[in-house]
Amino acid sequence: MCKPGKQVQRYDMRHFVGSIVFRTACGLAILFLLSIGVIAEVHAQAPTTIVTAIRQTSDKARSDVEIELSGPASPRLVLLRKPYRIALDLDGAVSAAKLPEPSDGLITGMRQGFAGGDRYRLLLTLSGAVKPRLEVRRDGERATVRLELPSANDAAFVWSDPGDVSRHAVPVAAPAVPRRFTVVIDAGHGGVDRGATGDGGTEEKAINLAFAMALRDALAGKPDVNTILTRSDDTFIPLNERSAIARRAHADLFISLHADSIRYKDLRGATVYTLSDRASDALSSEIAESENAADRFAGAEWDQDAPEIHDILVDLVRRETESLTERFAGHLVEDMKEAGVRLINNPKRSAGFRVLRAPDVPSVLLEIGYLSNKEEEKLLLSPDWQREFAGILAKAVVSSLRERGG
Ligand SMILES: [Zn+2]
Fold this sequence. Notes:
Elements: E1 22-23, H1 27-35, E2 42-43, E3 49-58, E4 62-70, E5 76-80, E6 85-90, E7 93-95, E8 107-114, E9 120-126, E10 133-139, E11 142-150, H2 163-166, E12 181-187, H3 204-220, E13 225-229, H4 239-248, E14 253-258, E15 270-275, H5 282-292, H6 314-338, E16 343-351, E17 363-367, H7 374-381, H8 383-404
Parallel strand pairs: 1-2, 3-7, 12-13, 12-14, 14-17, 15-16
Antiparallel strand pairs: 3-4, 4-11, 5-6, 6-9, 8-9, 10-11, 15-17
Helix pairs in contact: 3-8, 6-8
The structure holds zinc ion.
The site of zinc ion has 7 residues, from loops.
């Protein structure tokens, strides 16, 4: 479930930012939430778990954190470096507890808040690496989560021992059924937005849709993967709505498929683009600019930019999403290379693609090829190539998601 040695230990956090909606019927919790400035939408359904107290003891060599709960407890840890941090997550929980003052020891900072949906998160910032150990003790309706953090070297800063928790007869988070992944396949452009046009008159929007369908079919036989298409016909969808579909579906992966035109007619081959503030090169910057211009077709009813999401822990999830995105992009390039797919030079590039902006869904934009190249146009139109390419892509998607684990 958790692989040691990886910076991001679990993937459960993709819903972290989400719509900040949580359930509480506890007046104390509401007051607490308002006091930390989280925008709360209060639902009638009560949370199953309330954090009633948080205690810590900390010195330079060791820290212990104890969390008192009423209700079930299935804690999970997420570890991050630079700086060293540990997030302790509890599903279906709200906090009515005050944070203890940070001491002079290993724990230098403590925050609590919501990690998307109704997931409570306690975030500890540490002055150095530790070897975490988690234990849950039950006493009737109450539980105590104990997190022991003895100082250790960097190699020990991994979370790979959920068995520690299960020994104490508390239901742990490990799902009884195998994890299912959701992949959102986005056929770029559509409707009034035709995208690029090849010399032979091929419209990019149709090519993208054909490949999206082929990828959906290639993934259809995988028992652990659900697919969602942002469009399955010739419809216009604004960029923000495309990523919003992925966010609403709590997708594990978002793949936007394109076959754009570029001014270098000789250039052909696939390219994997990820999001970055600064473009990796001039070509990526041009492509992002042209892609982002797709929203000129959007009417006034569509927001041009998603509202900034303010959350006390938003940077953390962004960083995790980036790291998962990078890993998938690298994986995809390697798999395409191995399968003999033609790639452009430096096939992993980045720029400010608006469609990739979901902070909590790993997202890539894949240029399958470029319609500006005549040979490529012919290839892109071939149903055989569409099927073959989709098969390679599906393999990369599945192995990357399974590697990520559940
Ligand atoms: Zn395009």
